[in-house]
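Please predict the structure of the following assembly.
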Amino acid sequence: MSNLLTDVRPERRTSPVRRVLERGSGEHPRNRLVPPRLRRLKDRLTAYGLMLPVTAVFVVFFYVPAAYLFYIAFFHWGILSSATTFVGLHNFRVLFAQPLFVRSLVTSAYYTLVMIPATVLLALGIALLLKDGLARRGGSIWRGAVFLPHVTPVVATAIIWVWIFNPRFGLANFVLTSMGLPALGWLQSVHWALPAVMIDSLWHSLGLYVIIFLAGLASVPRELVEVARLDGARRHQIFSRIIWPLISPTTFFVVVLSTVNTWQAFSQIYTMTGGPHGGAGGPAFATTTDALLVYQTAFVYGHFSLAAAMSLVLFGIIMTLTLIQRWVSNRVVFYR
Amino acid sequence: MASIVLRGVTKRYGKSTEPAVDDVDLDIGEGEFVVLLGPSGCGKTTTLRLVAGLEQATGGELRFDDQVVNDVPPDRRNVGMVFQNYALYPHMTVFRNLAFGMQARRTPKSEVARRVHDIAELLGLADLLDRRPKELSGGQRQRVALGRALVREPSVFLMDEPLSNLDANLREQTRLELARLHRELHITTLYVTHDQGEALTLADRVVVMNGGRVAQDGTPDDVYRRPADTFVAGFIGSPGMNLWTLPWEDDGAAVSLGGALRLPRAFLPALERTGRTVTVGVRPEHLVAADEPAAAEGRLHLACRAELAEHLGSHVQLHARLDPAGGPEQRVVARLGASHRTETGNVTRLAAPASAVHLFDPSTGRRIFEPLTGRRVGTSELRVVEDRRHTGRGSHESERAGHLRDQAPATAQIRTAPSDAVTGARTTAPVLAPSEVAHR
């Protein structure tokens, strides 16, 4: 009589140790017939195949346009014409001969120089408040409130701020006149248009930097602050001599990130000062930053080669600033 | 130097119903070295932080030299503290770490330099003053942390598990170093640890904490020899004390506990205060292999079934099982002579001198009579102690200690029985040998 137990063929009884060894070395019996070189080739092809979709997206929409930008900056190039002429540095000479371009660089520099310190000081101040004082009373609600503007679309927040800065019925002038101060022209004033854009930009971006600073502050060991308290250090000494040096990598990161973001600021300026109906960058080019001028030169006036040259100048400025910041950071930033 | 007094100190976090520190009373004299000892979460570090001023007490009073300091900020208490992870400022050199406190208090530069160099000499840090903490070894960091706490010449020195991050050799060296420093500087010291080796070797007094309360406050000798309750008994010692909760009955010749263990009748006055069940405690190192089953003559006797004998070179650690009649099995650990041999499953007879027997009330866990000193005095001197909270000094308890004649022989030999012979005996008396069963 046949017995199920005795009918099991011996060669199918692989020992557990053998199974683990075979699995661990990847030596499936079928693979023993494939030469090692072919197997390695197969592994590589599989890996590249998996990377291909995302690489293709990056190449088509990022690397090729970036490389093409370098090309057209040195040529006379039109979007509807296939003919291109090499012009060398002519586009750059034209650029620097234009007062508007130089002014846009000055406006961008002014915007950046105000925005970076304001961003660092406000974000760090709010982060310190959230960490110590407000953390005990609804900390997560406050954190959410600060971060919320950052996840709201830039255009939507810019439109809200256009209402707030309306000279006739806006909230900003209501507050000023309630305090007995004179009403301002805000976005219609050559002097106040850029500060108005800065207020919106700060309000929108601050949440991100506050969260980054909160993470930096959380990385400072509590014991260091306690030891300093026992040592007799006052609050300002604890901040300036313990916390500030220890969060210097975070501060450096925030400075670099905000530098890049402010030099590239576009959406809020475009929306608040003109929008699709034209006139963006006004009044009287008071809010025309380099990034906005690149857009207008290319897509309003159709001078793509000039716009490409402007972009390269902008790229060079950001790169230079980042290298300077890195050089400074090697001297003042403390990495644990 | 300052004395420290805690009266009814309580600390509760947020709306928690369980206090982290619960009604703690503590007196630390000037220049005394007191160790807070206990398992994780027992409230010892919180108590230390309350003394430092890093936490605010929610109840009670804290005094330094008769001055109430509950509302005094940490920097005005003149305490030096060493943290478990050293808490050195990573961006400062050793010199600046040591000098920071004095610089923050605007001490003159020449004075800062002098004191930093003095403390660096004392702790062997003179060659390391220009290094940053990440360039130091664990032991060097530890010395910098000590130096930083000492350089301001504090009147109270607080240490929160300062040796726990060091390897075993370095820990022992640093322990000796701490003892030397305390002997030389004589600063009032409160030291937190969960390592009883550190506690028993360093402390003038050990405060054992459990569940936020002081379980016992006494000399190292007190907490080892006269544990106030079953928690202290089990926590102090490595391994901790054997604790067996068993019903007892007087059979005329001896007191039998669950048919598994026998005590001399001299313990009867104490046992009669506990009801019909008692918790008996004996330290593993006080158990010896016994050759005679006798209920005789002033020794505790038990027979247990060996489960594992660990040969540790200097001694054998025997893990065994006690099977009392009608009750759950209980564990036995004994530290026996290096020559002890037994087979798993065999019955091993063990004995302990009466002076090593501790009795606890099973309902409260508290000691019900003072341990016996081993002085050769009459058994009638056994004295029952009031069941009371052991928050006072252990030395006070010892004044009221009774004595019992220690009749344990200096040496004893192993006697084991074959497992199958014992199996038969278990139906009437789980692990006692037949002769003992007859005796009952």
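The first helix of chain A runs from residue 4 to 7. Chain A has two domains: 1-73, 98-332.
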